[in-house]
Structures are given as structure tokens and as C-alpha cells.
Design a protein that fits this description.
alpha/beta, 11 strands, 28% strand
Amino acid sequence: MAIEKVKKYFEELGEPERVLEFEESTATSEMAAHALNCEVGRIAKTISVFVDKKPILILLGGDMKIDNKKFKARFSSRPKMIPVDEVESLVGHAVGGVCPFAVNPGVPIYLDDSLKRFDTVYPAAGNDKSTVRLKIDEVEKYIKSAGWVDVAKVKES
């Protein structure tokens, strides 16, 4: 199970208490915000997309979505969502628990600037009932990222 990989990841860092588990689902940004009693933007959702037929992950605020123009300007291609049935094999986590920890080797993780609005954010931890609490200045310490990008825009209600 992917959550076990994430727990092991944090145990090896000496921080096993980072992984938080819930009785209720945290599979969507809205569900996670409800479980944590916080605003949706603080949920750091992980989007799985192809760039030049290679998988990448983008971590962005839960109240945001990919802006196609910004994405194309940054990556020189349009974002193409990875099909649900391929996400786990390509990334290492199933949809609902895709996270920026313990991912398959060679999958770059980008951090969107939309997260910088908050002092604390909550990415998933490998399944649909877990998260990790990170101060924004800890994000780069715990997530082996390929860097910060600006590829998001506010979701319309």
C-alpha cells in the first residue's frame, strides 16, 4: 500500500508523526478540508499529467486548477491528464492518494506558487484517508521537488 511507503519515507527522516490518518475520506480537496477543518486552498493537491509523454506531478492549492496557457508557457506543451488506470503504475500512488512523497523514480514533482499563500499546507500521504502537515518553509525540505512554478488559476465555482 502506498501509505506504507509514505510512512516509511517519514520514518527514515525521523518524522513518523508527520503522517495523519482519518476515519473519513480525504480523497478530494473538499473532503480533506472538511476532515482537517481548514480552508480548501490549504489542501495541497497533487495533479498527475504527461509532459512529452512522461509523467510529472504538480502540487497546487486545493482551490486551484491548471491554467493551460501558463502550463504551456512553462513546459512547452499542453497538460494531458494521466488516465486513472495508469496513474498508480506510472507514479506509485493511486488516484485519491497521489502525493509528492515516495513516488516512482524519475517522476519530477513541481510546486505551484499557489501554495505560498499559506503558512501550513496538507498534501496527501498515499491513500484516500491521510495527509501530511507541512509548514510552507518545510515543503522543500520534505518534498524532493524539481522547483517552483506558476501554472495554476483559481477554480470557478
